[in-house]
Design brief:
It is a single chain. This protein has 263 residues and is mostly helical. It has 13 helices and no strands. The protein is globular and about 55 Å long.
């Protein structure tokens, strides 16, 4: 399973990890990989799961930091070191965007290091481009730079057949379109993101896509979409936490965040 892939072939371990991850059971999924933590690929996959947990729950920071240090320690070449740097940038971005601690400089530095280490043809490049787009959009407030990064990530994900990453690039390009008042383009992008996540069974990503699509629709369709997003949100125990205020559920609202900081 890549950073945004689903199941690698018919590997029972990867299938189990994906099923747990897609339902928000990141700790359990990471535990399945713990026996292989000295293997660089498994170490990177494990830290990816735990950082995603931070992004969706605003919790588990110490576990993610420990896993990240392990991944950095066992990395053997520039490709693996670049992958670890990409995860460090993502963790620092998550802490910043969720208001835990301002680590924006660390995020920029780590993603810059990843860009220097990874070859232009690296399979990790699309994911790196996407994360640099997040930084440009949500921290640097540079939609033009974000759009260019998302497009590179989108093209790379398409070439690699990485459907889950495509769902994120569709979502964030749609978010920029909505920001500019391009409702038709935004509706198409959010619809594609939702379609892919439903087809993949990525349950934790369905509520954000539904809520975002609701912003493009008139009533009563918008209300129906938000109600469905709220149902999934409650089913998953209030995950992702940054949807709480937007969905106006019984969960105590948190400070307003971007429509989808997670990826």
């Amino acid at each position: 399973m890549s950073g945004y892939g689903t199941t690698a072939g018919d590997d029972p371990l990867q299938t189990a990890v994906w099923r747990l991850r897609s339902r928000g059971c990141w700790t359990d999924a990471a535990a399945l990989l713990a026996p292989y933590a000295t293997d660089p690929a498994a170490a990177l996959e494990r830290v990816g799961l735990l950082v995603e947990r931070c992004l969706f729950t605003a919790d588990g920071w110490a576990d993610a930091e420990d896993a990240l240090r392990t991944a950095e320690a066992v990395a053997r070449d520039d490709e693996e070191r670049g992958g670890a740097a990409c995860e460090r940038g993502r963790l620092a971005y998550a802490a910043t965007i969720l208001g835990v601690r301002d680590r924006a400089d660390e995020a920029r530095s780590a993603l810059g290091r990843a860009a220097a280490l990874l070859e232009p043809t690296s399979p990790r490049r699309p994911l790196l481009d996407f994360r640099r787009g997040l930084l440009a959009e949500h921290i640097a407030d540079s939609p033009q730079a974000a759009r260019a990064a998302y497009r590179r990530a989108h093209d790379g994900a398409g070439a690699q057949g990485d459907e889950l990453l495509l769902s994120f690039t569709w979502h964030h390009q749609a978010g920029l379109a909505l920001r500019e008042g391009e409702l038709a383009e935004a509706r198409h992008g959010f619809s594609e993101a939702l379609r892919i996540r439903v087809e993949l069974g990525y349950l934790i990503g369905a509520a954000p896509a539904l809520a975002a699509l609701a912003d493009c629709e008139p009533e009563p369709e918008a209300g129906r979409l938000r109600a469905e997003a709220g149902r999934l949100f409650r089913l998953l125990g209030g995950v992702p936490v940054w949807l709480a205020g937007k969905l106006a559920t019984t969960v105590p609202p948190r400070p307003a965040k971007p429509s989808e900081p997670a990826a």
